[in-house]
Amino acid sequence: MKIPRLRTRNGRFLRKLVPTPADQHCWLIWSIKWHMWHRRGSTGGASGYTRDIAEAGLFPFSKASAYHDGIVNEAFHASEKVDLVSMRMEDVRRLLTGLEQKRDAAQAVAA
């Protein structure tokens, strides 16, 4: 008997996850309910949420497939979110440049 494919809340078919080796922690888990990334707990499971992808936990395939249901959580391979990570890196670089300029201005005033 063929197992029917799971569907999301909107009726679309749920994406199939491509298995990765068990020792690779390369999966990000997005909470659809809270609109935040899952953090990784000390036991290896999800523990808390964060809006910043830099603080999001990386999970193995077993945890990603357990959480990936399309209704409450959705798992993404880290390679799918490279653009989001690079945007965040640009934001951090911009903030760092601004802080360096403020430091230089403060040193010039103090001198």
Largest sheet: 4 strands, antiparallel
Overall geometry comes to elongated
Q: Which structural class should the secondary elements be placed in? A: alpha+beta
By DSSP, the count of extended strands is 4
- Approximately how much beta-strand content do the residues carry? 15-25%
Strand order of the largest sheet: 3-2-1-4
Task: Report how far apart the termini are.
Answer: 80 Å
Provide structural commentary.
It is built from two helices and four strands; from the N terminus they run βββαβα. With 111 residues, it is an alpha+beta fold. It has a domain at 27-80. It is elongated, with a radius of gyration of 19 Å. The model has no long low-confidence stretch (mean pLDDT 90).
What are the defining features of this structure?
single chain; about 110 residues; alpha+beta; 4-stranded antiparallel β-sheet; 2 helices; about 20% strand; elongated
Write a compact overview of the structure shown.
The protein is of the alpha+beta class and 111 residues long. It has helices at 61-67, 82-110; strands spanning 27-31, 36-40, 46-50, 73-77.
Task: Show the helix and strand layout.
Layout lengths: L26 E5 L4 E5 L5 E5 L10 H7 L5 E5 L4 H29 L1
Antiparallel strand pairs: 1-2, 1-4, 2-3
